[in-house]
Amino acid sequence: MTEREMFMTYQALYRKYRPAVFEDMAGQKQIVQTLQNAIAADRISHAYLFCGPRGTGKTSAAKIFARALNCTSDQTRPCGHCENCLAADHPDIIEIDAASNNGVEEARNLVERVKYTPMLGKYKVYIIDEVHMMTAGAFNALLKTIEEPPAHVVFILATTEPHKVLPTILSRCQRFDFKKVTDDEIEERLLSVAQRENTLLDPEAAAQIAMLADGGMRDALSILDQCIAYESEHLKAEDIRTVYGVVAPADIAEIFSDMAHGHAETVIRSVKEIYDNGLDLERFTADLISLIKDSLILAYSEETTLIAADRKKLLSEKFLNSPLSWRKDLLNALMELYPKFAHASSVLDYLEAVILRYIDPENSEVSDKDVKANHESIGSSERRNDIHSAEITSKSDEAQKKSEGMNPESDVSRETSVKKKESQTVDRKIRYTTEEIVGLLHTADKTRRQKDMIAWDRRSLYGTSLQYGKYTRMISSGVLAASGEEYIVVYTPRQLEADAINDLQLDDGFSEFIEKLTGTSKTIFAVPVSQYKDALGMFRECMKSGTFPPPPEVRQTGKKENHMKTTEEDMREIFPNLKIIHD
Question: Are residues 15 and 154 both part of a single domain?
């Protein structure tokens, strides 16, 4: 064996295991069936366009189809035994790389050659790869030939970018869109190839390669080829991650959990360690985006079959305990960050900056971003309430002036009325102590909170309801913090909003609105964000000591009996000192 032959012995896996017949192709079943039916029915078009992502089998399908057209056996696939199938370089199958032969002269030479009849087979097949690279002049030179070629000529154009092909060319071809190969099909093919290469490939490792390949079979085989060079006997998922700098999902979930609990230093140290070990931060970000996205799917549909069981378990343990709105905001920030990596001077700095934006040292559920959003959301409603209050005050003053003119003791009665109203306002205000909130947090249920969070996020749907719209606006500033079977704990930017929400418990119809929103009757316990932070600090101290204060008694909310005011009662509200003479 010569030195050249020794170096040429090895062949890359994607070339060694290139499909030779339609049955070897992974995926693209509808395309394979259409081509086979066309051969069987002798309905051969003069021009085909194979388009789709890289590594999905476009060129392989073109070669198999070309050999099947020239196979002398009466079947819909290359037999592998006849002269045409055994020919290594078939003279009637011409493959042209349009990336290097894209000029007008090359197109004219092709037009001159198509008029010659086939040497061995029935058809002369021209496979033009990367056809989108051809110039407009070359396309125009080829246009008439593709439209009306000789009966013995078939054109197969392959491209990853069909939008760059002239519409006049597209309209003259039968178009086949190749889809990405599914992960299951890639895994099945990888396990088969690994077995033939005498390498033990774990299913988890095959799944990891399929994820990295992103629907490309050629990419998957290239990844497997490189990993076998690293470990030829037994390939595990850890080996794949080591070679390609991928962080394990469990480690990503741990970092996310630290973010949700506000452990800034731990998170930054973990990300820095990933970077120092040479792992890919872009891949880490993409995987984190994928996990957060799956956690949102799981939050909305617990019985989904789109997520594997082991991944569901990981998400339930590490992701679903964090606020849904916070996860959505973090997902948006990471998706905005990802395209910037291509131009970033330091990927690590960019990633750390986004992470720090979404970490609160106290607790991630109470972030400045949430408070700011709440202030903005209630701003317009506050202004409306101020105008409404001014109108009520004006009407009340006019009524009071009328009362003064009718009663000589108006000054005394007005003072008495004002004191009575102030007393009623104080009695109506409902507030809770920090110890009571800690007691509620201790008895809260995470599963119940996840369900109520979904319902709470949908409260804006009732904003236009004549019956419930006012309640929607009143609770719009509240952020759901904890849930129990009969209660919900929310925090607001200020004490004013918390008092307003708590006072709603006394209004008719509010309990009906909450029951319609959450599916069960619940009492709302609202506190300002500052008090909620204090409650979280006290909760941690109670966790250490093992003793918790008792929760407050949950009031049974329900519709109050409707009391229809009489005309006399209405008059007395407006004119407290009015004397009514009954007949």
Answer: yes
